[in-house]
Amino acid sequence: MAANQDSPDTVAALWEWVRLPAYVLPSAPVPEKLRRGLSGLWASLAPRRRRAEKPVEELRFAPLEQLAQRQHAPDPAWLEVVEAWQKCWLGQAVEGPVFVIDPPFGAGADLLRSWAERRGWPCIEAPPAHQLLDDNAAWLDALPEPPWVLPNLEACYLRHVRGLRLVRELLARLRSHWESRCVIGCDSWAWAYLVHAVPIPDHDPWVLQAFDRERLLRLLNPPQANARVRSCDGGAEIFPAENGSEGSSQAASLAALTRGNPGLALQLWRGALRTAIGPEEQQADSDPHTLWVLPVRALEAGLPSTSESRDAESLTLLHGLLLHRGLPGRLLATLLGRSEIDVLGRLARLERAGLVEVRAARWYVSAAGYLPVRWLLARAGYLVDSL
Questions:
Q1: What is the pTM of this model?
Q2: Domain 98-202 of CATH type 3.40.50
Q3: CATH, domain range 312-379
Q4: Deepest of 4, 43, 311, 355, by most Cβ within 10 A of its Cβ?
């Protein structure tokens, strides 16, 4: 178990709000082949452990149950993120609308709702989907006078011939009253689409800075952590008491793999945590406070395959889910111009492949499937987000 004694100033710096052009993707770590060679050299030179450790090769590993995953890798302290946004807000000269974009698996909309409540500003909920297609102006006409917060602009449009009218009119009204103070949150994929599809003012949105190696180490090893974490590949400590190379390498690899997305990194980390299962006679010697984690290269190799998802219809379906931060099956069928039965059947196949999941009757690209799907869409020439 590593010491984690960040000062209040250091903890606050974990969450940094920046303009989109200042967003910096994490640098890739040392190439894997070279890393393995250096790790092997270090292992040959390192002193022997002072106490006997159970040989890693004698262990078998099992995934943790979901409850245990969240206990050992809890959600971030989102209140700290709200505090960081409050400081950012107070430190800028506000003129006109402020846009805040959030990558998949982030909590941007909930954070803006909490911030609006703190400031006493109205929080505007998006209109129902049928109003987006019916050219119904009731939602627009009911908007209060600014200031207000709209946390999810991605829910105010549909990629459909009739699905952009409302968001166009909303932005037109904002342009005509540019002095209005309001904060608008938007999913990063929806933002990438909307800046091409509708006139959005030349205004750089705000975004949480990418999580690099140092930030990710602190996120995955919070002060309340009480478990020692070792690599399934060789048993090295992931969070050494001092900032050792192995922990840094694991975090750097995960940060680069997830493009600095802390929500995605946390979900993949949870899925990579393991508990040791050794021979029955050795269980009494097991350390109950030790967890194990797959190396990032094994985690990446275990991501779902897209081999059966490369046809045009599947790609368009997956792209639609990302552009709208998830959709109900019936609405997705409407946008694709396909029968609901056909779309639900395709979604079921993608779910079996691990690429999508359904929550509360709404379909999403899964955390495990996100990176393979993003790589596939980018290679096929589809529009992708910048985060």
A1: 0.88
A2: yes
A3: 1.10.10.10
A4: 355
